Amino acid sequence: MIKLFSYRALLSAFILASCLAPLASCNQASEEDQAVAAEEEEEQGLVPLTYENAVEVLSAYAEKHPDSLAVISTRHGDIKVRLYKETPLHRANFVRLTKAGFYNEGEFYRVVKDFAIQGGDSDERTMSQGGYKIPQEFNPKYIHKRGALAMARYGDERNPEKESSSHNFYIVTGEPVFEEQLRAYEAQRNIDYTPAQEQAYLELGGEPGLDTEYTVFGEVIEGMDVVEKIEQEPVDASDWPRRVVPHTIKIVKE
Q1: What sections of the sequence does the record tag as coiled-coil (predicted)?
Q2: Which CATH class is domain 49-252?
Q3: 3-state secondary structure labels for all residues of the chain
Q4: Where are the domains of the chain?
Q5: pLDDT, averaged across the chain
């Protein structure tokens, strides 16, 4: 399973519609119905992607599926998230996996209090999405504020381009940071936070140490209390919840 960089490493980094017309209409409707059916069949089958075709498939999918709201359901309640249109590959990937039912076989498998809860994977999974990664889509508008939704990835040594995991995601639960810590990250990462971003980090919290390292592609808009309940789950020495926290995800309309 892919993990974020360790909590200890993060802490240490802080230091720094007639006749013919209806007939044509019926034919058109029939063709449209067939297209929809074919699309649904493909989604339910979740044709695995590869490193070679992932960007092409996800780019085309992003144009056909403008969905931007999803609900993550757990035994603790629902978490509603908004997916950013400015990160099209990550948004398309999340929507595609969700509509195919892939995430309904997942769970929150890593919980680090005051840092993040990580989901998407499961040892019980039977559906395969293929072996691929998603090119990073860093956007200065989107930071790791408390409630941010981002994708996990392998570390820099094996993944210098900082490409994202194909399916593992996390939600940030970090606490408020000190101004000097924020200034240190700005200098270290060449970041210029806006006043609103500074306020979010100083008053609400988050993890600025993850900015420009992991792609943020959405945020929690309802249900942060549910995230907090998951965050309180007892864990073992590897940060795995002692009681499994399964999740299902569905796409909802605006």
Answers
A1: none
A2: mainly beta
A3: CCCCCCHHHHHHHCCCCCCHHHHHHHHHHHHHHHHHHHHHHHHHHCCCEECCCHHHHHHHHHHHCCCCEEEEEECCEEEEEEECCCCHHHHHHHHHHHHHCHHHHEEEEEEECCCEEEECCCCCCCCCCEECCECCCCCCCCCCECCEEEECCCCCCCCCCCCECCCCEEEECCCCCCHHHHHHHHHHHCCCCCHHHHHHHHHHCECHHHCCCCCEEEEEEECHHHHHHHHCCCECCCCCECCCEEEEEEEECC
A4: 49-252
A5: 85
